Amino acid sequence: LPISPALERFKPSQKSVVGLVTHANSITLTPGTITVEADYDAFLVHALTREGAAGLQDSEMDRRVGRLAGRG
Asked: Are the beta carbons of 59 and 13 closer than 8 angstroms?
C-alpha cells in the first residue's frame, strides 16, 4: 500500500471537555488516523498518509463537532 505515515499537531476549536473528547474519538474512528494526544491547546494525530494529516486543521469534522458541542 502507498503509505506515508505522519504525525500532525493542530489546535482544535472545541473548548469543552465533551467537545474535545468527541472530536478526538471521531478522528480515531476515521480509518487511517488515531489521536495520540488530546489537550485543550493541541491534538497530536498519527495518520497513514500525509494527505490525511494535512486535512486535520479546520476540517469538516472540527466544524461538525463544534456545532454538536454548542460552538457556532
From this structure: no
